[in-house]
Write a structure and sequence with these properties.
This protein has 146 residues and is of the alpha+beta class. It contains 2 helices and 4 strands. α1 runs antiparallel to α2. The protein is rod-shaped and about 100 Å long.
């Protein structure tokens, strides 16, 4: 914003130096344009101040959301090395063998990620992941088949 203010002050100085006044038609127009520019610059300064306040507010919201994610999910949700995916809860399922309700965590899955061992009966249970694309099959490009 400093650049606009500097340019405005330079042009205003030129008008003052040339002793432009409202006596002529051209002088009236130039003075009106200078008043308009002054108002525009003040409006832009107000908008920049509002944007800075909004940026600060969004940063605070982002920090609060990060704390909330950590409290709810037990990690920052970013997949970084500091986050332990083994403790992440992926949901609850009912074992088809023993009918017990199991809370799935990352350390329960087999290496392929498509099954887990029931902690109650020891049976391997296949997991059917919900696909988010329409008409999913093995040929589509979604992440379901990786």
């Amino acid at each position: 914003m400093g650049y606009l203010s500097e340019r405005y002050n330079y042009v205003k100085g030129l008008c003052d130096g040339l002793e432009i006044n409202g006596d002529s038609k051209e002088g009236k127009i130039l003075l009106a344009v200078m008043e308009l520019l002054d108002e525009v610059i003040l409006s832009v300064e107000d908008l920049e101040g509002f944007r800075e306040e909004t940026d600060e507010f969004l940063d605070e919201i982002d920090e609060d959301l990060g704390e909330l994610e950590e409290a709810v999910y037990g990690d920052c949700g970013c997949g970084c090395e500091e986050c332990d995916e083994e403790d992440t809860v992926f949901g609850e399922v009912e074992c088809p063998e023993c009918n017990s309700l199991i809370e799935l965590t990352g350390d329960m899955f087999t290496e392929d990620g498509d099954s887990f061992i029931c902690p109650n009966c020891g049976k391997t249970v296949e997991v059917e992941w919900d696909c988010e694309c329409d008409d999913c099959d093995d040929d589509c490009d979604c992440d379901c088949h990786e």
